[in-house]
């Protein structure tokens, strides 16, 4: 599929797509179509509502966006429409985007491009009939003449974002038979070479020499050795350095503290934080954002054999602190502990943000609509909240007060990894991570357990969402723009 931005159609098309919001002028806007009286009765521009009208020479699709849509709504509506219509659309389609802002056009293109995404990565009975995206089809994006150049840049950004999101979703949805720590490392190396940022991968021996004891303890029960991935993207105009840390557990059995079998197959998604950081690094480089980012991913499997860590074990960490392991299924915080210490010891970071599919407690608290945000920095919390509302990748701040600190006291080690109670699980996990931040004044933890892998209309089972990529890119843009 090819997308071109024009202010008038150079050739006739077989289908046109019109976008409508719920407002007082809707009836007047619908008057241009045949059978307008019936349209006004039936089409209310509800969110994702689709109405097909037959014109003299083309089909006309009317797509509802609801009331006062945000960019995230454009993405959702356009993705849904093109996903459901991609087998039916003809080879030449016009999409009317007159009056939209650059950010809205970027969202429109982001959404329609995502409409091509297919979960059937490993199916052999692929459909033989090519879709609109697979054919040599043409989409004309119609805008005002004075907006053509600005819209063309927005189209490029929207396509670039969607392409990276699709790569991230592929990684999220891959089973552990096709995804282990070295695969994440290879993904990073390949992306870095393609898009111009540096990647350093530390193998198991190097991790041991460095003293990444918590990471090595988690990986001890798996035949697939860990990888510690450090990425750096630096634009010449960057004024500050941002650290991003992503949990990269490619499969989580829970270890000796074994998870129940129900839905354990979804634990292939326990590298959602790593996926978000990988995608953000790639997209920032593709968009040439004037920022300096350090991305750190500790990657391992949490499995078990005779060498696996056990409840009650005391392990070391890169920080030098000892950790009593109460629950081996609280492994993500262990590998993040080493990574956060590494981040603040080796780099002068203005901000550190870690992302992790960390706790079921966060899902129980916030469900699937928002990630849990933990930080003591009010300005950082507000800026992440703002980006979440803009992109639809929402965050909600939860407390990280010292009232919860005593839950981590251990009689035998400096700290324990789990408090063993069915309350405040996400908060206590965040307090554990805080121990390893060296009291960094601008650190934030995002628990994305409920948002990284979710139900959707695009499949019958949960799948990767690429949550975090658009959130972080918007946040980074805002840091640049003040």
TrEMBL record:
Keywords: Aminopeptidase, Cytoplasm, Hydrolase, Manganese, Metal-binding, Protease
Catalytic activity: Release of an N-terminal amino acid, Xaa-|-Yaa-, in which Xaa is preferably Leu, but may be other amino acids including Pro although not Arg or Lys, and Yaa may be Pro. Amino acid amides and methyl esters are also readily hydrolyzed, but rates on arylamides are exceedingly low; Release of an N-terminal amino acid, preferentially leucine, but not glutamic or aspartic acids
Residue ranges crossing the lipid bilayer per the database entry: none
Catalytic activity, EC: 3.4.11.1, 3.4.11.10
Protein origin, superkingdom: Bacteria
Gene3D superfamilies per record: Leucine Aminopeptidase, subunit E, domain 1, Zn peptidases
Domain Cytosol aminopeptidase: 170-473
Top-tier EC class: hydrolase
GO cellular component: cytoplasm
Cofactor requirement: Mn(2+)
Pfam family, one: Peptidase_M17
Chief location category: cytoplasm
GO terms for biological process, alphabetical: proteolysis
Compartments where found: Cytoplasm
Record-linked InterPro entries: Leucine_aapep/pepB, Macro_dom-like, Peptidase_M17_C, Peptidase_M17_leu_NH2_pept
Active-site residues from the entry: 259, 333
Residues that, per the record, bind Mn(2+) 2: 247, 252, 270, 331
Record text on cofactor binding: Binds 2 manganese ions per subunit.
Record GO terms (molecular function): manganese ion binding; metalloaminopeptidase activity
Residues noted as binding Mn(2+) 1 in the record, renumbered to the chain: 252, 329, 331
Similarity field: Belongs to the peptidase M17 family.
Protein function: Presumably involved in the processing and regular turnover of intracellular proteins. Catalyzes the removal of unsubstituted N-terminal amino acids from various peptides.
Protein name, entry field: Probable cytosol aminopeptidase
Source species: Runella defluvii
């Amino acid at each position: 599929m090819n997308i071109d931005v024009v202010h008038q159609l150079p050739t006739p098309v077989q289908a046109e797509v019109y976008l409508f919001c719920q407002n007082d002028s809707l009836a007047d806007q619908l008057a241009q179509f045949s059978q307008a009286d019936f349209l006004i009765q039936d089409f209310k521009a509800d969110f994702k509502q689709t109405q097909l009208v037959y014109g003299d020479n083309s089909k006309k699709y009317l797509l509802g966006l609801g009331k006062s849509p945000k960019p995230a709504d454009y993405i959702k509506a356009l993705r849904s429409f093109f996903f459901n219509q991609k087998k039916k659309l003809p080879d030449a389609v016009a999409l009317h985007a007159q009056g939209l802002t650059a950010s809205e056009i970027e969202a429109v293109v982001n959404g329609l491009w995502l409409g091509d995404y297919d979960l059937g990565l490993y199916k052999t009975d692929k459909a033989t009939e090519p879709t609109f995206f697979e054919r040599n089809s043409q989409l004309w994006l119609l805008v005002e003449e004075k907006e053509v150049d600005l819209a063309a840049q927005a189209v490029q950004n929207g396509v670039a974002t969607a392409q990276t999101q699709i790569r991230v979703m592929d990684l999220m949805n891959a089973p552990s038979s096709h995804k282990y720590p070295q695969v994440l490392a290879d993904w990073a190396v390949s992306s870095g070479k393609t898009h111009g940022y540096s990647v350093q991968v530390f193998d198991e021996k190097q991790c041991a020499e460095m003293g990444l004891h918590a990471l090595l303890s988690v990986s001890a029960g798996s035949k697939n050795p860990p990888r510690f991935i450090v990425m750096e993207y630096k634009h010449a105009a960057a004024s500050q350095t941002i650290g991003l840390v992503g949990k990269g557990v490619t499969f989580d059995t829970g270890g000796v503290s074994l998870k129940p079998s129900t839905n354990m197959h979804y634990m292939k998604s326990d590298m959602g934080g790593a996926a978000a950081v990988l995608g953000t690094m790639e997209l920032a480089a593709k968009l040439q954002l004037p920022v300096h980012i350090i991305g750190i991913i500790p990657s391992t499997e949490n499995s078990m054999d005779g060498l696996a860590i056990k409840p009650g074990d005391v392990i070391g960490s890169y920080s030098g602190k000892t950790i009593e392991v109460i629950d081996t299924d609280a492994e993500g915080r262990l590998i993040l502990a080493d990574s956060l210490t590494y981040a603040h010891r080796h780099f002068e970071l203005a901000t550190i943000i870690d992302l992790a599919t960390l706790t079921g407690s966060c899902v129980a608290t916030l469900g699937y609509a928002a990630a849990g945000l933990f930080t003591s920095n009010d300005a950082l919390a507000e800026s992440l909240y703002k980006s979440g509302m803009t992109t639809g990748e929402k965050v909600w701040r939860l407390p990280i007060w010292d009232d919860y600190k005593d839950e981590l006291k251990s009689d035998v080690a400096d700290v324990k990894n789990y408090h063993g109670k069915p309350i405040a699980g996400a908060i206590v996990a965040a307090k554990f991570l805080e121990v390893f931040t060296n009291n960094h004044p601008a650190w934030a933890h995002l628990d994305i357990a409920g948002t990284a892998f979710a139900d959707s209309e695009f499949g019958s089972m949960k799948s990767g969402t690429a949550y975090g990529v658009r959130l972080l890119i918007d946040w980074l843009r805002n840091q640049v723009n003040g």
